[in-house]
Amino acid sequence: MRLEIIDHSSDKIVETYSVSSVSMLDFQEWEGLSEKIIPLTQLLDEVIKLNGSDPVTNEPHSIAMAVDFYLPAPIEHKLIDLLVDKRATSDMSSDISLNLQDEISEQVRNPLLKVNIILAAVVEEISSNHLPKDAYKVRISE
Amino acid sequence: MIEKSVSLDEFVAEYQFWGDWEVAYTDKTHLQQDEANEYVKLGSISIDYNESASQTYPILPFTFQPVSGEQIENRFSELKDGEKQAGRARKIILDQLTDSLLRSGLVRPKLRLLKDGGIQDGFREIIEELSKHQYLILFVDTGAIRRGCVSFLHKILPKVSIWTVVPVFVMVEVQRQIGELNKIFRKIEEKQDKSHPGKCSILEQRPQVSCVSRELNYIKQWRPVEILTTLPEMLGQSNGQSKVDRLIIESVKNLKRDRGLHHGVYLMTSDKDMASLSALENVNSLYIGTSSLPNEVKSIRFDSQNRTFILSPVHYLLWDLAQVFSTIRVSNAILNRQYELVYYSNARDGFFAHDIMEIRES
User: Fold this and answer.
1) Fewest CB within 10 angstroms: B105, B181, B237, B328, which?
2) Which residues in chain B are closer than 8 Å to A74, comparing Cβ atoms?
3) This prediction's pTM
4) How far apart are CA A25 and CA A34, in angstroms?
5) Mean pLDDT over residues B59-77, rounded?
6) Nearest CA to CA, how far is A140 from chain B (Å)?
7) Cβ(B168)–Cβ(B180) under 8 Å?
């Protein structure tokens, strides 16, 4: 998904944000739309209302994606070792133990996130970055 | 009841949270402690995932809804002798919640850069400006460390080497606060039958010790921190805030002159006046402010500078709240699970103590 910030007065694109992990198709409210233009003043309210449900199961749509954790750096480094120790058993072979380490690293570094939360985080950042809000609109497209 | 002492990494690894939780605090310095301790609600945490997701993905996003000012006042009015301090408690608790959200990475600080006679308020412009330096020498005051802003800059400026310089006056001030807290705790121990031995203003003092120590402790483990000593006769002058401000500004000037540093040196402070004063004296400064407490905050932020998502674990917020509020109760009525997180029951150990918390599970 692409969010282009457009200056109201000149109609020029001032910045583009790409969120490859989220698609317009993830939101039932935007079904059939190729693009959506929303004034920046209303963007956050509109995005918060989106439900982001999976069209087949109707469950909230989540994806596992890479993030950076807000934790003191030394803690982050120790965390994966602790989680591996917790799940490892004493009779595990070294190969299985290495696989387990990779698997747990992958799960920790790629937590499960709901698509509407991801989009709301981007939109919050856009709202804080581009002021005054009434000077801009946002074009959302694939 | 199971009691356990854990470090932060152990807390994240061993305790999984999902569903809806209420967070409340009690503190023997100003709330009644008997069989049914007085608790004051701090907010609600909602983690919209199930147990199986929490087993596979140990860190999940959450939403935090802080308590409202009105709810705090009402709760204090219900407590024995609490009505008198209800208004003050409202302000202090809301301020402390805002600082906790800032330290846990749930909200970003408000920055103001005062540099070369100019003032910049735009967050992105300031971060862009700071990222031009290969290194930053940050001269920090107590407020800047307390708000966890060195850690914040480390996270948002990963390619810039940050050297933190702590003037010895800051350490002296924290030592003084440790002494005061110890005195308060001694009084409580001596008069154990008194229900309300103190005032809630201790909630402002405690993070000056616990959160400052934690921040310095963690930065020290992986990045350089220098405690800048000064002449003993100047230490004797450190009574009174304006004199401390003056000494800190003079220390920055001395450091620049003695080491021939011309770029990348900033005084980082949470005091607006001090930031302006230092700018007038040609010392570049970075003011660290906070926004008002949001009604609801999500634990995932987008960092447009680095084009990454930053996720704050719920454990880190709880850890911080326990450091500020002494004892917090985290309960989930549906799961019938309750934890008591006890961090700072005494001003023991002082600087660079092991960052350990006691968890009581019932």
Assistant:
1) B237
2) 218, 221-222
3) 0.92
4) 9
5) 94
6) 17
7) no
